Amino acid sequence: MAHSARRRSPAPLDEQRLGELALRYVGRFATTRAKLRSYLQRKLRERGWEGARPPDVEAVAERLAGLGYVDDSGYALAKARALSGRGYGKRRLGEALRAAGIGEADGAAALALAEAEAVSAALRFAERRRLGPFAAGTPNDPAERQKALAAMVRAGHDMALARAIVRMAAGQEVDREELRLVLQ
């Protein structure tokens, strides 16, 4: 016997179902207040509303934040560690925090961490992409150097730091202190 191709549409949301949906979401994903609000608003558009009062997505997000299920500053720090660990810079982190709806106050510690890790992250990126001192050979072609520089800047690194790393000869010993001075 063939099953019907039509699926039963989920029931419209009410206050209890909205709260349960939010709780399930924060249980599965590290998230921010803004991302949770966006998710709940999308679910309301998809399923509709049948509560006695209008839906208060903001109150649901704030209640879960108050209970500690949503922590914007914790999310920002985790994002900073992850991006820095993969070799991305402070500017790229700032873009990710804005996209996640993280405010200035909640993102301050994360941006400070990214700033402190700037040289290490840039070197990780250069090593992963085989640029500067990690290249197989020193590129003689200015277009190749420009391409490497552009990649580092797109990854969120400071132009002066990126330039200093890209200019290094293949196999050259890396002086982290000298690179830190470039940032000042």
Compact summary:
The protein is mostly helical.
How much strand? under 5%
Number of domains: 3
Q: In DSSP terms, counting alpha (H) and pi (I) runs of 4 or more, how many helices?
A: 10
Terminus-to-terminus distance: 73 Å
Q: State the order of secondary-structure elements, H for helix, E for strand.
A: HHHHHHHHHH
Shape: elongated
Helix content: 55-70%
| Regions with little confidence, pLDDT below 50 for 5+ residues | none
The computed structural class is mainly alpha
Task: Describe this entry's structure for a reader.
With 184 residues, the chain is mainly α. It has three domains: 15-66, no CATH class; 72-116; 118-182, no CATH class. Helices cover 64% and strands 0% of the residues. The protein is built from ten helices and no strands. It has helices at 15-28, 33-47, 57-66, 72-85, 90-99, 104-116, 118-129, 142-154, 159-167, 176-182. Helix 4 packs antiparallel against helix 5. The longest helix has 15 residues, at 33-47. The radius of gyration is 23 Å and the shape is elongated. It starts with 14 loop residues before the first helix and ends with a helix.
Topology:
Layout: H1 15-28, H2 33-47, H3 57-66, H4 72-85, H5 90-99, H6 104-116, H7 118-129, H8 142-154, H9 159-167, H10 176-182
Helix pairs in contact: 1-2, 1-3, 2-3, 4-5, 4-6, 5-6, 7-9, 8-9
Question: What distinguishing features does this structure have?
Answer:
single chain; 184 residues; mainly alpha; 3 domains; 10 helices; elongated
